[in-house]
Amino acid sequence: MLDEKYLLTLLAKSADTLNKTESRVLEHLRRKEPISRNINDELAEKLTFGQRVADRVASFGGSWPFIGIFTVVLIIWIGMNSLILLFHAKPFDPYPFILLNLFLSMLAAIQAPVIMMSQNRHAERDRLDAQHDYEVNLKAELEIHSLHEKIDALKSELEIEELHVKIEALRQEIIAFREAITKQV
User: Fold this and answer.
1) For residues 146 and 100, what is the distance between their CA atoms, to the nearest angstrom?
2) Which residue, among 117, 99, 126, has the nearest Cα to 61 in the 3D structure?
3) Cα 21 from chain centre
């Protein structure tokens, strides 16, 4: 288990000065729970009907099929009015197409706020994603530091063990050397 005091020193904070994110990360570390989650699934469950409609309108309104359909509708509108003008004296929307301009203005007036709602929600999701990424990165960084400490401790233990082996080998050489000296005397 990760030592909380050690983690607090890594954060350079005391337990009472931690912000909400740091406290949540430390709690996940303490419980040995993953902190990763799918933000998109969480947000999708909370979407209202209006928000889903706004996302669909924004998605379609900013697509090539919309531009293609809209271009065809404009060409048909202008073409029909031009043909009616040629064959009949009174088209339903004569040049300069004031009725068409009215419809385009109304469409823009409705579509723009709906697209803005969708963009604002996407910006909020991006902020949540960034916050979540920070939490995951902070937890990973703290765990990596902890692993470094453990590896350094193991390395020190191995070095001490190697020194014990060398000391024992030297002790055996000294004993052998003493025995050799005592045999010569």
Assistant:
1) 67
2) 117
3) 14
Read off the amino acid at residue 82: S
- CA-to-CA distance for 67 and 122, rounded, in angstroms? 22
Q: Which residues contact 13 (CB under 8 A, 6 or more apart)?
A: 22
pLDDT at position 75? 93
Q: Residues 47-96: pLDDT tens digits?
A: 899 888 888 988 888 889 999 999 999 999 888 888 888 887 788 888 88
Nearest-angstrom CA–CA distance, 106 and 101: 9
Q: Identify the segments of the chain with pLDDT beneath 50.
A: 1
**Integer Cα distance of 158 and 154 in angstroms:** 6
- pTM for the predicted model, two decimal places: 0.59
